[in-house]
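Batch 3, record 17
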Amino acid sequence: VTAASSTRRRAGRRRGRAGVSSKGEGRFALLLLAPAAVVVFGVVLYPVARTLVVSLYDVDSPMAGSYPFVGLGNYTRVFQDSAFYPVLGHTVYFTLVSTFLELALGIAVALLLNAPLRVRWLWRSIVVLPWALPTIVNGALWRWIYNGQYGALNGVLSSLGISHGQHQWLGSPFLALNMVILADVWKNTSIVAFFILAGLQTISSDLYEAARIDGAGAWRAFWRVTLPLLAPSIAVVLILRTIEAFKVFDIIYVMTGGGPASGTQTIAFYTYLQAFSDQLFGYGAALAYLIVLAVFALAMTYLRLLRQGRLAGVE
Amino acid sequence: MTFTGPAGPHATGLTRRGLLSATGAAGLGALLAACGVGGGGQKGSAGSGKGSIRALFMKQAGYSEDDIRQMTASFQKANPGIKVTTDFVSYEALHDKIVAAAPAGTYDVVLIDVIWPAEFGSKHIVADVSSKWPDSWKHKMLPGAVATPQYDGTFYGVPWILDTKYLFFNTAHLKQAKVDPGQLDSWDGVMKAARSLKGAGVTKYPLVWSWQQAEALICDYTQLLGAFGGRFLDDSGKPAFNQGGGVQALEFMRQSIVDGLSNPASTQSLEEDVRRVFSAGQASMALNWTYMYGLADDPKQSQVAGDVAVLQTPQGSSGRPGVNGSMALAVSAGSQQQAAAWTYVTYLTSQPVQDKYALSSLPVWRSSYDDPTVVKTNPAVVPQAKKQLGDLILRPQVQSYNAVSQALQAEIQNALLGKKSAQKAMDDAASKTSSMLAS
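Prediction for the assembled complex:
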């Protein structure tokens, strides 16, 4: 008993000394974390909290003032807004099509870049160029390419003898939406390809060798070895690209301004119009929160699918 | 000190729970701090009349960036106690930049469009300067200019860019197609001329317009609505553009596309696109602001220099009113240097400064149009402007103008693209805008 008591006392003294020391170190750690915390709270948390508060009021001016509290009124108003549903449709279409195309093309490009090509570094540098281009520049570039009067696309089609008309690529709502998607795919496929390429480089060549010995061809090896092992990379890319595509704004702003006939307006663009052009800040804030919720739900769904191993056919 | 792995925080006494609690507390604090709604907003003050001020302008149309920098340099020379920083954004970004910058009082002077005084004035984004407006200005300036910064009898700035849309045409093209320019006095004549130009193979699409889903579309529509005798609102403030001239104007626009007389790219074009197409000789006629003349007739920037002529807007069944496309310089309500800002505004809008830069933008002052020096700066446009600037119509002066305009833009495009009849499109626009105008 005496020996046990003595051991407990010694342990207590050790804890005591460690406690004093850890308190000081804790304060020091907090001090070190303080600048980061200030930035995070100031730049992230405060605007997020303020937007939430604004979304509960009928704020119709950027200036300070007293505005009526409407509770969830701005949120319910979104679902009564007849202009919201077409905008939601455009956003979902943009997100699904652009993400699918970027993923499919990105995998194809990554497989090529992973192959033993000569001057592979050069190909990789070329592929990264579209992604390095600012979206605003990319939008302006494609707006010129699509121009019916003097655009390069009509010029190329004409010189190849495919078509000689002055096609208005941004002239009708649905066509314009698809052409904007194409411009977005051109830019973002490269980042998808690099994510996938990073995933591909973690796959051991032994697995392909084993598959080959088992009689699997290239196609079968791709489906049975490459794709399942790329699942984590694909999941990351899906989450990132879905979120980005759902929030698409800048390329729409530059290329079409939401037209023609509002056919390329997406939720983020509509939110911007409501908040800044029409100064309906409360309503705009509610729309912004709905975007966050939708993106969060999508991200959670992907993560759940990944955890359950359902992505890329992993059982 | 080195933190190693997950044991690190525990070893230093900074537990995960502690960190989360601290984060939660900070978050709650942020939430509470955020409970005031609206922007920060600060009350403006006159200031000392000296010091640094910041002004926001637009990049395109009217005075060029170089013009404004030169004017500002002259101002600073004359007023050494005031230093001015100038910023430029595209017209499409100007409104939103003013709104976003208002709470912080970033700008002391802002350029505002004729359609914004109702909104900016009622929301206290720009200052009421009625008491500073000399009575003499009301007579010395043209009526369209005096109306520009006004809402509900209050002045929210001083007019600076007085503009409307004129009909530009390519004299060589008309000559080639044997079209008499006198024909362009009416819209019927313009269409007849366009058919001749197309028939003669001079231009595939003789007309080009700025009909992109943007305010530019409403400007062109307004000019035609006026010519066809339409009105935006009736006397009780309800939409009236879905009746008579309002619908006829839209039918006219659509028909010109159907007949292949208007370039179908017009529905994706802004004023600068119109200028480029016209300057490339790919259109024979176009409506645009004054600034197009100087650029389209400049051999360095245009392939049709020397062949450019300008007329006042053609007449329709109800005359030839031009859209009031004027802009004003306003003092921000949140400026801490309102006195210095006002000095700068009065300098830029003064008659000698405006007369000097008349090639870029015509003066707001009545007597300038009889001044031979001003006429000499822009002999093609000034005589037309003298006739046109007395007959301008305003777009609706309502607080929710932007929302009304967006609804109209979308529905006008629906008709232009053949997705709806002109009547249906205008009825739908009227239905959407009724509630906006009521609120």
